[in-house]
Design goal:
With 227 residues, the protein is of the alpha+beta class. The chain is built from 10 helices and 9 strands. Strands 1, 2, 3, 4, 5 and 6 form a 6-stranded antiparallel sheet that branches. Strands 7-9-8 form a 3-stranded antiparallel sheet, covered by helices on one side. β8 and β9 form a beta hairpin. α3 packs antiparallel against α5, α5 packs across α6 and α7 runs antiparallel to α10. The protein is globular and about 55 Å long.
């Protein structure tokens, strides 16, 4: 469903559009198609040539791949103020993963043809795109190191502290199974780690709500944990 979005406010609020500069942001917004995606809505499927760049305004998007046996694996969770499919739009060809809304989401869809045309004449947009891809590469590298070299409790603590809001509440709109997959563990293992952190007084759990009284104490406690 298309929605009306205030262009100046959005350009100021979204980091990628802000980095691209007012001229490119205005042109991108003029070409953009805003839409809403309910939970579990498929944004695009694997092995399909990308037709657009997506900017996430609100909600959560999961990027996943499907194995030869039909099983799906979650690669990453995209949060608000991020964009995705940038490398695919620039390189072209088919892309091996798909995207699905993990929570009710609002997005901007920028057609690939329009994006290429604007980038060809705007050096600041090209620089912003390179910087965006570099940050995403660094994020994936950090995630790989984390998965290989850190304990489950440290991965959970890092995830929670990365989503802290004012007052110590953690934003977790996604299904717990999706968060567990992102952290490289089963939902049962995630539950055990969370309750272990709660028993140590490092987090407070109330249904789906998670609060972190002291982020530094959580990080230190997770490193000292045996899990």
């Amino acid at each position: 469903m298309l929605e009306m979005i205030a262009a100046p406010a959005l350009a100021a609020a979204h980091p990628f559009l802000s980095a691209a500069g007012p001229a490119a942001a205005s042109a991108l917004l003029a070409a953009a198609q805003p839409f809403s995606a309910p939970r579990r809505d498929v944004i695009f499927t694997p092995e399909v040539a990308p037709e657009a760049l997506y900017l996430l305004l609100e909600g959560s998007i999961g990027l996943s791949m499907q194995g030869a046996d039909g099983t799906r694996g979650l690669l990453e969770i995209i949060g608000p103020d991020e964009c995705f499919l940038m490398p695919a739009v620039i390189l072209g060809g088919t892309w091996p993963f798909g995207a699905e809304a993990l929570a009710p989401s609002r997005l901007l869809r920028i057609p690939a043809e329009a994006f290429h045309a604007i980038m060809a004449r705007d050096a600041r947009l090209a620089e912003a795109s390179l910087a965006q891809m570099a940050r995403q590469w660094r994020g994936l590298a950090d995630q790989l190191i984390e998965m290989k070299l850190t304990k489950a409790s440290e991965r959970v603590a890092h995830f929670l502290t990365g989503r802290l809001m004012p007052g110590g509440r953690v934003a977790m709109p996604e299904p717990r199974a999706a968060i567990a997959a992102r952290l490289g563990m089963t939902p049962e293992s995630l539950s055990r780690v969370m309750h272990g952190l709660e028993a140590a007084g490092l987090v407070r759990l109330q249904g789906r709500r998670v609060d972190v009284p002291d982020a530094k104490a959580l990080s230190q406690g997770a490193r000292a944990s045996g899990h």
